[in-house]
Amino acid sequence: MKITISVIKADIGSLAGHIRPSQKLLRKVASHVRSNGKGLLIDHRISFTGDDIAILCTHEKGVLNEEVHRLAWDAFVAGTAVAKEQGLYGAGQDLLKDAFSGNVKGMGPAVAEMEFEERPNEPFLFFAADKTDPGAYNLPLYLGFNDPMYNSGLILAPKMTKGFKFTIMDVSCVEADKVVELNAPEELYEIAALLRDNERFVVESVHSRTSGEQAASISTTRLHNIAGKYTGKDDPVMLVRVQGDFPATGEIISPFAIGQYVAGFMRGSHNGPLMPVKINTQVSYFDGPPVVSQAFER
11-39 pLDDT, tens per residue? Predict the structure, then answer.
């Protein structure tokens, strides 16, 4: 059976600046999805990382489905009304368009989705980052999928020895999606050359070269490209399938222990270590630090 995993994230209001959503705001988004997602979604989870609310769901409608995206958009609109009522900071901040137009890509919220034939056991990881950009995932993805020092399956597991295909997007191009596909390990240096410029080139997706199956999907939203001005960091989300043809859970998680320096903090003005935190964690120090949360799902 084909199944789709979607995560749609937005900052629609927070307490005391860019700290965390209020409980009433979270409850409103959750109740809207619960009430209006019946018959549409298989399952869902509402969570937050810093001041961003993420709607993670499974369904059989495929990627960029209008019904699923409208559900998320309407939930964020309903939540924005609560944020304004409560006087929260940045109410509706990531909703950069006035009306829904088929899907939320290009409207402000960050989106990561994958459609695939479900395995008997289908584990995946959901990552959400706050106070940073999509390029924050470049190094962990490079190491987790390409480096045997982090992913021993590349030399020990026959299903991974062919490596992975990286689709990399030039997010400075605003006229259209400009991407390049590069194969590891043959084009490892070319991948590294692009990903080192993490303000311009970001990983959009990763596929297994053995099976052709998608292993990872990353949001590439750049808010300033949509709004035409600085409106906050892009706070990316990411989905990664694990086990079987793909790296093990620990092989994907271990690169985050580095605490690499990424763009972020207050007003996007500084660089700082990307700190792993548990899901539903607020930020505080200097509107930071840049954080990434991760949840195991199946």
Answer: 999 998 889 999 999 999 999 999 999 99
